[in-house]
Specification:
alpha/beta, 5-stranded mixed sheet, single chain, 7-stranded mixed sheet, about 450 residues, about 20% helix
């Protein structure tokens, strides 16, 4: 029987624009790009030339520090352009897809007979190893690390998050194969939600299944690590997105790299919120064109409303993105009397508005911060939404002040920027907590290199 862990801290934000359980039929896309910034911590070195033909599954770039870590092309086609920014930083490798797709063949493998080293070698060879992250530092892991455990969270509970159970339908065999492969490397934990009933989750084999019952961010893999097997200095755990587990399973079952995943197209400014099957690196415009409302100025987000990044129609789907979100920008809002109005249609954590009287009402929030950055107030706000055994406010202060010893003592090795997404939402000081945590982790990683 699965172990049940009840969490009381957190906050569920109910937003308009949840996806209906149907899949949209999208027009054919020929414009793809793999974006190195999707793989945090990687320094890309391009290994293809413009005009060169690649097969799906062949490497477009590698990690300069670990050249054996390759990053596979989602499609076969002609490399159209290597986009570079300041100081020749690689921003994207664009590929024009073939009408008839060709796949690099890495050979089918029976995972039951593989060792952990053979699993890692197969993922390295096929360009899928880069989909494995690690704690500490919340970056793409390196092949010279030995994890004490591997964590997969199948619970997506952020606002408007895609339901993984819907994506799992038809992919159960590949998901189980991926879990079995990971279990060959280290003890593997699968975290699921109390309301998830898919047999492939509740009765998953070769892994330890744990049920997390509580509000967002119970689905954060960092929260699950904190409650099951905390990371101490000198230790490493691997974390894997559940969609990537399906990618791994397809590799072993078919011998081919197939980066197709089901994403949610959501938000109050989507005309028809639903799901769609797309490849990693698909042009955003191909996914949402004609679906985004033209009535308001819209913020398009590559990812979730709490953790995603603003994007345009000409950007490309990130490697670990499970939602494309559209909400109002809010820069054209003109409210008489501003904050002093009673506001029945606005959400407030502190019950500043009368809207809390309406229960679990869905809100159409916009992208406004509603206030300027100010001095940090030690109010205990972070602790109310951070279900981890750390002192969030003190950790943020230690990062801002650059006190590395204090950061280590306060548990920085256990956190990732997404763990502070809700704290950033409720923060009355309007600090960019996710950016602060990322910068702190980057400095710590450099110091410990």
């Amino acid at each position: 029987m699965a172990n049940v862990i009840k969490l009381r801290k957190g906050l569920d934000i109910h937003l308009l624009g949840k996806p209906s359980e149907k899949k949209l039929s999208l027009p054919e896309c020929k414009d793809f790009a793999l974006v190195p910034d999707s793989f945090v911590g990687v320094i890309p070195k391009v290994v293809v030339k413009e005009g060169e033909h690649v097969k799906a599954g062949e490497a477009l770039f590698v990690d300069k520090r670990y050249p054996e870590v390759k990053f596979a092309s989602p499609v076969s086609g002609i490399v159209r352009e290597v986009v570079r920014g300041e100081r020749r930083k690689v921003l994207a490798v664009k590929v024009d897809a073939d009408a008839q797709q060709e796949f690099a063949d890495y050979g089918m493998r029976e995972v039951a007979g593989l060792t952990g080293a053979q699993v890692v070698d197969a993922l390295l060879e096929s360009g899928l190893f880069g989909y494995i992250n690690q704690l500490p530092y919340a970056v793409v892991t390196s092949p010279d690390t030995t994890p004490k455990a591997i964590f997969v969270s199948a619970l997506r509970d952020k606002p408007l998050a895609a339901d993984f159970e819907f994506e799992l339908e038809g992919n159960e065999h590949d998901f189980q194969t991926g879990l079995t492969a990971l279990s060959k490397v280290a003890n593997t934990y699968l975290g699921i939600g109390a309301k998830q009933t898919a047999v492939a989750l509740t009765q998953a084999k070769d892994v330890e299944v744990n049920v997390f019952d509580g509000p967002c961010p119970a689905g954060n893999v960092g929260v699950q690590v904190n409650h099951l097997n905390p990371v101490n200095k000198g230790e490493v755990v691997w974390t894997v997105d559940p969609s990537a587990v399906i990618f791994f399973g397809r590799l072993f079952n078919t011998g081919k790299v197939n980066l197709r995943r089901t994403i949610a197209i959501v938000g109050s400014e989507m005309n028809d919120p639903a799901y769609a099957d797309v490849l990693v690196g698909t042009r955003i415009g191909n996914i949402v064109e004609g679906n985004v409302s033209t009535k308001n100025h819209v913020r398009l987000i590559n990812g979730n409303v709490l953790t995603g990044t603003p994007c345009s129609m000409d950007d490309y789907l990130g490697s670990n993105v499970s939602e494309i979100t559209a909400i109002k920008e809010g820069d054209d809002a003109d409210e008489a009397f501003g904050w002093i109005m009673p506001r029945f249609k606005q959400f407030s954590v502190n019950r500043s508005y009368f809207s809390w009287l309406f229960g679990k009402k869905e809100y159409a929030l916009d992208a406004r911060i509603k206030g300027g950055e100010r001095h940090m107030i030690m109010s205990g706000e972070y602790d109310k939404v951070l279900p981890m055994d750390i002192y969030g406010e003190y950790l943020i202060k230690a990062i801002i002040s650059g006190d590395i010893d204090r950061q280590e003592a306060l548990g920085i090795y256990e956190v990732s920027p997404e763990d502070f997404a809700l704290a950033e939402f409720v923060d009355s000081s309007k600090l960019e907590l996710q950016r602060i945590v990322r910068e702190g982790l980057n400095i710590l990683r450099k110091e410990n290199a």
